[in-house]
Structures are given as structure tokens and as C-alpha cells.
């Protein structure tokens, strides 16, 4: 019964370990893109640009306004007192006589009158104006808004490429450390065997104790390096986990070191042919286009604007409401602003010329960057070839020194040096593979291709 319980306890500790998620490089790239704040912000800026497009399109529609005013005054706004003079009364009496009326009636009427008006009232107006011609400003503004959305999408693609590159660097750095840990494990096993041989030789009186002590010192050095390595692995795991959105998680990656490392020539492309596909090159084109549209926009501000529309007016100021409808045509010609606007257009033309010059210069730099990325990949591949030869040479050198030591024709110092060189050559190979993988991704992205 106790044995069964012990087996269940062991299985209980092993099952969570076996069930732990192993993250591949592809998964880490995807998660890094999904959880990166820069990408989230880029998505929001695209939404902003789309709203700006809709806002610019609304300028094609009639501009409609509705205004209404109701007022109520404490006293009349218009007040006037007037009186009839004696001459005016006589004239009025004569008029009444001519009309066959009795002029004596005037005697019963007051000679002074008060005129009061506008104590309360209502005024409302509805105006709709449709722009007919605005110097091309509305059309240009719409093109500029659409261009801005395209720029935001390209910038988001640029950010995604940067994240893929960074994720690859973190992932391969951790992978290299795991490979170096395997090398340390192999070195430990070698030193255990060498120590046992030295111990046997010492007990047999063939060698002195110095050989055993030299091996133990080397083992202590390996132990110190292992401690540094484990701390490095822990830190790299934390960095990678944070970058892919799993902060605080003890993640595990696929620790298999890549063996499919083809010659870089299969990735080589005509850099001039793929230049226009580069996100950076497209952004340079958009910058020139944007400056050209801004020039047209400023030139359009110097031209007349024409709009047609209609207005409906309702007013009730005397208790008798009236409604009127009228058509309107407005023409606006900027006159005094032409002087400053002319300089503004010239300044923008200079900015457009600078954008064109910058585009040509930066396109050349992009070509240089692509060639540099390929050179880095080619150099990394050659380092792999050299590292492989170094491993073969150092492994053979270690084997020979072991044989020589057992035969008594080599010292322990020579054997330990051979073991160190073998370890270093394996570490150099792991570094070269990591550099190759990083350089391959960098070159593929630099030539507008998907990372493998």
C-alpha cells in the first residue's frame, strides 16, 4: 500500500510538468503581436484615421443649420410718443369734411398718441448650403485623409516586423543558453570520468594528487559557470514571457537547436526588384504624396469658393407669424489673404521637393541595409561552418589527450585544456546558430518576406 501511495505521489509531481505548455517560436511571435501595446495603439490610430476619412467625406454634403430665437422683454423695445398740432388738426378736419364726415368728432379724440411695439417675438431660420466649388480643397482633403489611413496601416506593419525581430532575438537567446547548459552537462560528465581516472591513477601511485586537485578546480569552475547560466536562463525566460504577454509565467520553449541551416544563397533576391515592396519605401512614397496634396490644398485656399443653397425664415414679432423661403448663391474670393497664401504655397512646394530628395536618398540607404543584412546572414553561415570544424577538431584533440594521459605521455593540464577548448567550440557553435537564425529573419523582413 505504501509503495502505491509513493508511486501516486511521484506521478502527481510529474504530471504537471509533463502537461506544461511548450511554446514554439511561431507561437511566441503571434502572442507578442497580439499582446504588444504598440500594436494595440496602432490599431486605435487606424480607427482614428478611418473616422477622419468619414469626417472629410462629410464636407461633400450640404452644410445645414437651424437657428431659433424667442424673446420676451419687460417693456416694449420700440416706444414713440407723438401729438397733433393745431394746424395738423385743422388739416385733418378739412379732410374729414371733404370725405363727408363730421369734423366735430376730432374734439373728442386725444391730441397726443403713444406708439409701442416688440415686447415679445419669435424668429427661426433654416439654412442649407451645398459647396459647388472650393478650389479642389474638399477633394484634396478626402485624398489626404485616405492617405493617412494607409500610412497608419504601413506603420502598423512596420511595428509588427520589429516585434517579430525582437521576439526572435529573445527566443534564440534563451535557446542558446539551453544549448550551453547541455554543453555544461557533457563537460560535467567528462570531468567526472577524468576525475575518476586521476583518482585511480593517484591511488595506484602513478600520479600525484595535483592531477585530482586540478580536475576538482575545473569542476568548481564549471559549477560557477552553471550558476551564472541558470540565472541567465531565468532572466531570459522572464523577459520573453513579459514580451509575449505572459508576465510572471515560468514559460518553457522548444529547446531543440535548429539543424536545417541552408546556404544563404537560397534566400538571396534582387534587392532593387523588391525595394518597392519594403514598408519603409512605401512610407517614403506616401510622404511625397502627402506633401503634394498639401501643396494642392494650400493652392486651393487661394481660389474662390462657390456655394448654393436655400433658407427658410419664420418670424412672429407682432402676433402675426410669417414664413419666407429664399434661394442663395454665395461667392467668396480671398483677396487680402492672397499675399500670405502665396508664400505659404511656395513654402509647401519646397517641403514637397525636400520629401522627394529624402525619398531618393533613403531608398539608396534601404538598398545598403538589405545588402548589409545579407552579409550578416552569409557571415553567420560561415561561422557555423567554422564552428562545426572546430567541434570536430576539438573533439578529436580531447580524445587524443585522453589516450595520451592514460599512456602517461600527456599531462592533466593538457587534458583539461583540451576539454575546455571542446566546450568553447560547442558554445561558439550555439552562438553561431543563434546569429544565423536572427540574421535570416532580419534579411527576410528586410526584403519584404515572411519570417520562417
Written account of the structure:
Strands 2-5-7-8 form a 4-stranded antiparallel beta sheet, with no helix packed on it. The chain has a two-stranded parallel ribbon with strand order 1-6. Strands 3-4 form a two-stranded antiparallel ribbon. Helix content is 65%, strand content 14%. It starts with a helix and ends in a 6-residue tail after the last helix. The longest helix has 70 residues, at 338-407. It contains 10 helices and 8 strands. It is an alpha+beta fold. Helix 5 packs antiparallel against helix 8 (279-300) and helix 8 (279-300) packs antiparallel against helix 9 (338-407).
Topology diagram in text:
Blueprint: H1 2-18, E1 22-23, H2 25-35, H3 37-57, E2 63-72, E3 78-83, H4 86-98, E4 112-117, E5 120-133, H5 137-203, H6 210-243, E6 252-253, H7 271-274, H8 279-300, E7 305-316, E8 322-332, H9 338-407, H10 412-446
Parallel strand pairs: 1-6
Antiparallel strand pairs: 2-5, 3-4, 5-7, 7-8
Helix pairs in contact: 2-5, 3-5, 5-6, 5-8, 5-10, 8-9, 9-10
Amino acid at each position: 500500500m505504501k509503495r502505491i501511495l509513493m508511486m501516486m505521489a511521484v506521478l502527481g509531481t510529474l504530471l504537471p510538468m509533463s502537461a506544461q505548455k511548450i511554446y514554439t517560436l511561431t507561437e511566441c511571435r503571434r502572442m507578442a503581436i497580439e499582446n504588444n501595446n504598440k500594436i494595440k495603439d496602432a490599431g486605435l490610430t487606424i480607427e482614428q484615421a478611418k473616422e477622419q476619412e468619414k469626417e472629410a467625406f462629410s464636407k461633400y454634403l450640404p452644410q445645414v443649420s437651424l437657428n431659433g430665437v424667442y424673446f420676451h422683454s419687460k417693456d416694449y423695445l420700440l416706444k414713440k410718443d407723438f401729438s397733433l398740432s393745431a394746424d395738423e388738426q385743422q388739416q385733418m378736419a378739412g379732410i374729414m369734411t371733404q370725405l363727408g364726415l363730421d369734423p366735430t368728432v376730432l374734439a373728442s379724440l386725444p391730441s397726443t398718441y403713444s406708439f409701442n411695439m416688440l415686447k415679445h417675438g419669435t424668429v427661426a431660420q433654416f439654412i442649407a448650403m451645398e459647396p459647388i466649388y472650393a478650389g479642389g480643397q474638399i477633394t484634396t482633403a478626402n485624398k489626404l485623409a485616405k492617405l493617412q489611413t494607409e500610412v497608419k496601416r504601413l506603420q502598423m506593419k512596420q511595428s509588427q516586423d520589429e516585434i517579430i525581430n525582437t521576439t526572435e532575438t529573445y527566443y534564440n537567446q534563451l535557446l542558446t543558453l539551453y544549448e550551453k547548459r547541455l554543453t555544461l552537462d557533457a563537460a560535467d560528465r567528462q570531468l567526472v570520468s577524468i576525475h575518476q581516472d586521476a583518482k585511480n591513477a593517484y591511488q595506484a601511485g602513478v600520479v600525484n594528487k595535483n592531477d585530482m586537485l586540478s580536475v576538482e578546480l575545473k569542476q568548481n569552475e564549471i559549477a560557477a559557470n552553471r550558476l551564472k547560466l541558470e540565472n541567465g536562463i531565468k532572466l531570459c525566460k522572464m523577459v520573453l514571457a513579459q514580451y509575449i504577454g505572459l508576465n510572471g509565467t515560468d514559460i518553457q520553449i522548444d529547446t531543440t537547436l535548429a539543424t536545417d541551416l541552408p546556404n544563404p544563397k537560397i534566400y538571396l533576391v534582387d534587392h532593387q526588384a523588391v525595394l518597392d515592396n519594403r514598408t519603409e519605401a512605401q512610407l517614403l512614397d506616401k510622404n511625397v504624396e502627402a506633401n503634394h496634396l498639401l501643396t494642392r490644398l494650400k493652392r486651393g485656399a487661394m481660389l474662390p469658393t462657390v456655394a448654393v443653397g436655400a433658407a427658410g425664415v419664420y418670424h412672429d414679432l407682432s402676433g402675426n407669424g410669417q414664413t419666407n423661403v429664399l434661394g442663395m448663391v454665395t461667392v467668396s474670393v480671398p483677396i487680402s489673404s492672397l499675399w500670405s497664401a502665396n508664400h505659404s504655397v511656395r513654402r509647401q512646394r519646397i517641403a514637397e521637393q525636400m520629401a522627394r530628395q529624402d525619398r531618393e536618398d533613403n531608398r539608396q540607404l534601404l538598398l545598403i541595409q538589405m545588402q548589409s543584412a545579407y552579409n550578416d546572414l552569409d557571415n553567420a553561415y560561415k561561422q557555423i561552418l567554422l564552428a562545426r570544424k572546430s567541434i570536430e577538431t576539438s573533439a578529436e584533440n580531447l580524445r587524443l589527450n585522453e589516450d595520451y594521459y592514460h599512456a602517461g605521455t600527456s599531462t592533466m593540464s593538457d587534458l583539461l585544456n583540451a576539454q575546455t577548448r571542446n566546450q568553447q567550440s560547442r558554445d561558439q557553435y550555439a552562438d553561431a546558430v543563434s546569429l544565423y537564425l536572427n540574421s535570416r529573419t532580419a534579411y527576410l523582413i528586410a526584403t519584404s518576406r515572411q519570417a520562417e
